[in-house]
Amino acid sequence: MSKCFVSFSSRDSDFAGKLMASMRLQEVDVWDYSNPAQDIRLGDPVRADLCRRIDGSQHFIGVITPSSTDPDIGKYCIFEMQYAKSRGIQILPVVLAPCQSLDPGPELPFLKDAKYLTFGPTDEEYEFSFARLCVEMGVPYVPPFLGDPRIIFAPRFDKDIRGFPVPRDHRIQLRLIIDEFTRHYPAERWADAQEAIVYFISVFRRAVKGVVPYYPTVLLALCQAHQNELEFAENTLKPLLNHPRADENLWALLGQIDFVRGDYEKALDRFKIAKAKCPPGKDWEARFNILAASVELGKASDATAAFEGLDLSERPLDDQVKVAGLQAKLFSRAGQWDSVITVLQDVFDRKIGDATTAIALAEAYERRFDASNAVAVLTSEADRLNDSNLYHQLAALHVRLGNLVRALQVYEAKLLDDGARPRQMLTDYALILRSIGRFREAREVFRRAAGLLQPASDSEHYFRGLAFYLLGQHAEAQLEYADSRRYAQYYDEFLAA
User: Fold this and answer.
1) DSSP designation for 7
2) Tell me, what's the pLDDT at 165?
3) Which residue has the higher pLDDT, 141 or 55?
4) Closest-CA residue to 121 (of 97, 87, 146, 150)
5) Is the sign of the CA dihedral 359, 365, 370, 373 positive or negative?
6) Kind of pairing, strands 29-30 and 3-7?
7) Confidence of residue 37 (pLDDT cuts 50, 70, 90)
8) Would you state the torsion angle of the CA atoms of residues 255, 258, 260, 265, taken in this order, to the nearest 10 degrees?
9) pTM, rounded to two decimals
């Protein structure tokens, strides 16, 4: 690890502290005297200690400000820079934007004609200047987001810069664009991420003629796919099929595009190619994709083969739940309800499942005519997850079982205050009241549902229209039905079903 001495005034410690923190992220060792743990010990000779630290450093940065060049306030800064100059050490002077025209004074004549590196006030300007500083020091610059292990694609992204004769300014610009991309992508700002990656590819092609950057092109297609631009994504990937670096990521993304389109057979073939290209022990996602496509195709043998030789108990709990959910889906499509229960009961007992696994397990028990266990599963998981959809499923189960009073209790305790679906919950509740002869109460609830203004979704328009229909206001019902974009069958058919 290289060492760097940063000369600064205590009055500029905010900027100096940020600069030193950035240095440490680049694995450069810096001494911060403003940190009590690193300060010169009481009684030690200050100038001798400074000289020792400067002599032990490979780099010297001078933060040039009115404070650091003031003969009184900055006397130690002046001494440090004079000593570094006398030892033939290169001084890298940095200056804050407001101090660009600063005269360093007679004590530092060697800085009068020196070229300064200016740090601007914004994060982008700071990072750009810091990247240039790293280049001057010969320190590999890694943007801050690339150091985040959660951004798993960052090292591959950065790899496309290495090994090519990219001019220094372009190299800095490319790495800063990588940083911008990796800010947008985890936040699911797909359009912004796409704009950044398109810019990266453009800058790269200007710097390196005749070379297609592989991984950035894959990421461009990924951004397009996230925005449901499937044809654009596929066309972006096609030129990479014969690329020397074509890997599992390319085939997995092509498979995902086919999967979203409903072409599960083609998706399965591509997922298998992706799995074959995965490094040893790194094929989890490929296996999961094969399982998902096999379930859609009803191919039990492929689904089983997907996880041969893999100990699922070593996977994170979320992954175990995802696999169990897909296995249950495969069994339920075949009507193998006992197998569904076998797969999901363990998930339920360990309290690691989600709403999807709870609904599937409850359905399996109901299909096996075990109503008590179906109710128990939905009740327990709805309470554990505090999930309004599970409470809605529980109420619907009580209705199917003829437990209408219990269903009303679930609505009253958990669903009538549902902020996302108030019209649907009120209308469902009123229909149950109506079915047991509590017509006056039902009519009041229908009025409440109809009186709620500005529905936020197609379904809410639909259920507001249903409330109008049941109040006999058919013109208003037709308007809401039209605004729902025919969310479901018309109300007379809905009620007859």
Assistant:
1) E
2) 73
3) 55
4) 97
5) negative
6) parallel
7) low
8) -90
9) 0.62
In the predicted structure, residue 248 carries a pLDDT above the cut 50: yes
- In this structure, are residues 424 and 401 in contact, taking their beta carbons and an 8 Å threshold? no
The CA-CA-CA angle for residues 414, 489, 413, to 5°, reads 5
Residue type, 344: L
The answer to whether residues 104 and 111 touch, using CB atoms and an 8 Å cutoff, is: yes
Specify the 3-state DSSP secondary structure of 119.
strand
Which residues is 95 bridged to in the sheet? 64, 118
What confidence tens digit (pLDDT) does each residue in 439-455 have? 999 999 999 999 998 88
DSSP 53-113: HHHT-SEEEEEE-TTTTSTTTTHHHHHHHHHHHHTTPPEEEEEEGGGTT----TT-GGGTT
Residue 385 and residue 412 in contact, taking contact as beta carbons nearer than 8 Å: no
Using CB atoms within 10 Å of the CB of residue 152, give its burial: 0 to 12 exposed, 13 to 18 middle, 19+ buried: exposed
Q: 15 near 119, Cβ under 8 Å? A: yes
Specify the DSSP class assigned to residue 6.
E
The one-letter amino acid code at 6 reads: V
What CA–CA distance (Å, rounded) separates 493 from 472?
16
What one-letter code names the amino acid at 125? E
Amino acid at 2: S
pLDDT score at 157: 61
pLDDT, averaged across the chain: 88
| Residue bearing the bigger pLDDT, 13 or 336 | 336
Cα 481 to Cα 455: distance, rounded to the nearest angstrom:
12
| Higher pLDDT, residue 44 or 313 | 313
Task: Please tell me the distance from the alpha carbon of residue 473 to that of residue 184, in angstroms, as a whole number.
Answer: 48
Mapped onto helix, strand or coil, the DSSP state of residue 456 is: coil
Please check whether residue 355 is in contact with residue 381, taking contact to mean a CB–CB distance below 8 angstroms. yes
Name which of 255, 293, 259, 260 is nearest 274 in CA terms.
255
Through-space distance between the first and last CA atoms of the chain, rounded to whole angstroms: 74
How far apart, in whole angstroms, are the C-alpha atoms of residue 265 and residue 255?
A: 10
Structure tokens at 278: 């995965």
Q: What percent of the chain has a predicted confidence (pLDDT) above 90?
A: 60
Distance separating alpha carbons of residues 232 and 119, to the nearest angstrom:
40
Query: CA–CA distance from 309 to each of 45, 270, 459 (Å)?
Result: 66, 21, 45
Name the 3-class secondary structure at 117: strand
- At 101-129, the pLDDT tens digits run 788 888 999 998 888 999 988 877 888 88
For residue 478, give every residue at least 6 positions away whose Cβ sits within 8 Å of its Cβ, in sequence order, or none. 465
| Token pair for 126 | 């700071």
With a CB cutoff of 8 Å and minimum separation 6, the contacts of 336 are none
Round to whole Å and give the CA distance between 462 and 413.
Answer: 24
Helix/strand/coil for 29? strand
Residue 243 is encoded by which pair of tokens? 């690329």
What residues contact residue 460 under an 8 Å CB cut-off, 6+ apart?
A: 421, 422, 423, 424
DSSP code at position 208: S
